[in-house]
């Protein structure tokens, strides 16, 4: 077959056919690249952080984690002691431990299979072992079954023993290796002298309103007033505590320790033997006399130091529940000898006697015409016994306690000089003895005196004093006219044994030495037991072998129903000096409304008993007998 002739036809070039692509392809690629980059960066950062945590910061982070579990706790400082003037302890602290357990945690740890495998015992066996071991150390006071019940309880925290000796705690935790048992510091305050000095020393105990406070704190008396000195400075410890409970210390986790500094010791001027005997004799006399209460004080005649400060009723500071048994206003918890003033009666006549002699108005043998009564403004003052006009020596006015004779001499002294003498004797002023709640007593301000005031004050009515102030007046006469404010703290002894003696207060000159000796000699007539009319008002106070100066007192109490002086209720007082020729002690006494005869008439027999004890206790040399003094002339 022939092909057609002519040129061959031209072919079109074949074009490549493109496949269609979805929109946004370039953006997708970019996201993949960014994602891969971020992933690599995150892995690099994590790696660097891992190296930093496990390497460079491992110790710091571990310490920070540990600190988040730690709690700072106080270590209570041991409280300082209180001693008498001879160093005999009146209050002291004994160290104790409270033992506790975390029962839930103990069971959890000892039921762990690894623990069981290691120690070959479970929680029941371990608690039985602990209960038995603790009973062996602590004795029958802690029965094994009771300890076991506590150890197996479902409580998170329990005290097993509240007060055990430190060596017992050490034996349980270290010797028997019961590390599960925790311990807390405890302090037990003890009072060897118990009741006789409790009104002075007071009480220290746990604060009932804060049971978590582990520190003994002063609550009454010197324990309270000197709390900062006795308490010392607390230390610190850092412990691990249970989660969400900083009060629950994990046993054996103490990390750091700043030791506590013990408190200082207070040495008192009190003689514990004298305090005991005076308190005993006072309480017996109050009981026999039917008085509502009574107080007594014994002062050193030269220094004003308080050897005894007693009240008839006290409390037992060793009773941990005493504050729950007695109301806060109960007088047994206070110290009426310094807090409760009274009208002194005739013991206050020493002010008139001192002023009369000091200003040269009278001498012991000055004879006064003393009628049976005297009128002062709208008042008529009488003597305690009925008599017409008598001629008395000024010594006789004191010895027989004549109100009329005293007022006659006071009128010579004058109101201004008498008011000044009251101030010099310290009336109306707190003594600053260093005891809680001391009263300054009451002396009417000079500008408030009425016409009859000067008929009351010279005979000890219309003003009030404490037993301590009253004794301080006689201390001035015993100390040749210089009143030394009384003190009850003798020294502070630091925890390092360094002693700091308390500075004796500056003396206050009341009268001259000659006046003081003259008045002291005149007051021997009070205890004079010569036949009447030369007999004094307090011969029962006389002590064989010693010259005794003193003054009896009887002051009417106010009848609240009428606002007037009672004819049946009295304060009975006595102040005396032993011995008069060379004073060593001053004794002040007060009985509140005694009712039983003959003890309701005078406190002189009580002074005799106390003076007799003091003379023997301190071996005071006997006195040369003094002459009988003339009280009534003609």
UniProtKB/TrEMBL annotation:
Region forming the signal peptide: none
Region (Disordered): 1-28
InterPro entries in alphabetical order: Beta-lactam/transpept, Beta-lactam/transpept-like, PBP_dimer, PBP_dimer_sf, PCN-bd_Tpept
Transmembrane regions: none
A single GO molecular function term of this UniProt record: penicillin binding
Family annotation (Pfam families): PBP_dimer, Transpeptidase
Official protein name in the record: Cell division protein FtsI (Penicillin-binding protein 3)
